[in-house]
Structure prediction request, 783 residues.
Amino acid sequence: MTQKELFASGHRGCPGCGAAMATRMMLRATGDDVIVVSPTGCLETFTSMYGESCWEVPWFHGLFENAGAIASGVEAALKMQGRTDTKVVAIGGDGGTFDIGIGALSGMLERGHNVTYICYDNEAYMNTGVQRSSATTPYASTTTSPAGSHSMGKTRPKKNLAAIALAHDVPYVATASIAYPQDFMNKVKKSLTFQGSRFIHVHAPCPIGWGFDTALTVEVGRLAVETGLMPIWEAEYGEITKVRKIREVKPIEEYLKVQRRFRHLFASDAGKKELAALQELCNKNIEKMGLAGERKVTTDVS
Amino acid sequence: MRLNAGAVCAGGGSYVNKTGHWRTFIPRVDTDKCNGCGICYTYCPDSSIEIVEKTAQIDYDYCKGCGVCAHECPREAIAMEEERK
Amino acid sequence: MGKKAVIEGSMAIAIAVKQARPHVISAYPITPQTHIMEFLADFVANGELKTEYLRVDSEFSAASVAQGAVAAGSRAYTASASQGLLLMTEVLYNVAGMRLPMVLTGVNRSVGTPVNIQPDHQDTVLFRDTGMIQLYVEDAQEAYDAHVQAFRIAEDRDVLLPVLVCVDGWTISHTFEPVEVEEQEKIDAFLPPYKPLYHLDPKKPYTFGSISIDKDLMEFRYLHEEAIQGAKAKIEAIAREFEKTFGRYYGGLTQSYKTEDADIVFVAMGSIIGTLKEAVDELRAQGKKVGVLKVRSYRPFPVEEIRAALANAKVACVIDRAISIGFGAGPLTIDTQAALYGPNAPQVLPFYAGLGGKDVELKHVAEMVAKAEKAAAGEAVSAEPEYVNINWNLVS
Prediction:
């Protein structure tokens, strides 16, 4: 049942950390013949104190904005050394991927390096104290988009990075959630079978930044999927081949209510417009991606 | 001991950092209810659960007491109790 | 013996890089560096060079790709100029701190604004405190030689630092000069394949880019400084070994030209050294005791060598091709003054010359010497920097 642990205990991640879950799952899928590259971010900070690294695989952190380029260089070097069995995987947060690292990521995808880039998306700059990123869900209150008498939080839509990755004509793009580990791990494994660049966007809730009980990380992740806010799909060679169906679609309020970052939407009637807009966003996702309908997989951790 | 050039270090050194003392609540496994399905093992962000002889075994040296395992256990075999130190 | 050919400076560099057999080259165009990358692309296209040649999305990625490759245990190379080097800055601090021995060429060009594509050192002096080694070369032959040496220096187990080879744009990069190109076997013997101390390998999983707090950050800086100070002897030794193998020596940390009995010594870096040597020959013919001290290694800075070379000089004319705006002197002047500080030091006269490609002719050198002669004779002269060949009409 259990396998050799590649993500050692003793790291400094917060209790209930979604990023740590994503990384552990990723390493279970890759196995130990892997080199991992990370940009700056929570994951980097809580795993890599000198002499107290929790990485039991070779791991490289360069800067905030260059994980795609570092991974490219690693992959190119392995090719020249004939070490092509060793897999190269990058994992970074939404700040390092959606925002500051998108240039290097785009370059990597365009050049087609044999790398799986995984973005664990916790929807803000958590390491620096919950500042909004382009991955933040609209109307979330963050420390740089705080709710107030003149503000309903973040006003702009969430960037669809998986679609941007898809536009690079890469062989494999998928979205996933830490709430569905088997699905995520299968996607990581599957990605590694493709020649070329692969991108996986994995939703990874953050108890501290989003304001929910540490026991609810998986629950909140599940609600994001079940409301249609976080569509789960995969695409091969530019075509969407699989969509995770939602058996019983839940209203967006169920997701929002358990999180402090959306508290202002329920504080008065003023938030009704935003709540309706978020519900509309989910409805559109469900319609556009065909999320409603019978789900084939039945086990709890699928 | 001389530091390594470039602050490169071996992996796995994090075990020196016993994060168990972070806990305010402690998960207790009811071994009668647990069937060793491994859901808690999969979700544990702190790599602190192992399945030994079809039962979840928690490493209290590192478990931070987040409670995800208890919340996700389909058999309600894990209960969170207040930590007494 | 190598083969002598009249080639462009960029070609000399490209050939040296090809002969170093890097596993990975990352390329991003910027004038006047572009020819180097085009020549290397040709080598790959016609099968002369087997390497992963990556056409990247920015200079930031160019430096990062090379860093990743070196961390994975391969030899890697990149080049840039001016704004492109500036964009690499954050990466280069990271490479140096991680003690990764990559080699890159800085084809010197001024920095905007105003936009200027002509040579000066404003771009590379920016890297003064990165902890990289910086070598400045005076012509195409030295550019070729220095690149071969740079990989040896960088990859030395006691050094393990990136080396930036600074080459004046146009004056060296785009000028055709006779260059002796060595045989590949001889280069291979001089420069064996890269054997990393640490590299990314699942068999021995290392963590690169770790966090250091107050308990050891200063200690890591100590080791970095220790390594670059130790590199002084290596730079000299490798230059001498190169001389023994190939018969050419352009200096290690510095090179003295007719300084032994000189009252007036020019201190400078880069292609201006050629002009200065020529001027010195002419002035010597007029009976003037002048010489040139080429600073080849800007970092590590050759404090002892400068002191020794100027021990008997009365005046040191330091020529800066960059300006430390707000200080009132150029970076080379500031460092030279600091190196010379103490009793019996020669008087230092600072000059800005060749900024943004401004011409420096023999007559300008003669003017500098005229001022220095007054100082040498005990006359009071201004210690303020002179702007050589400035057009006063444009500033008054």
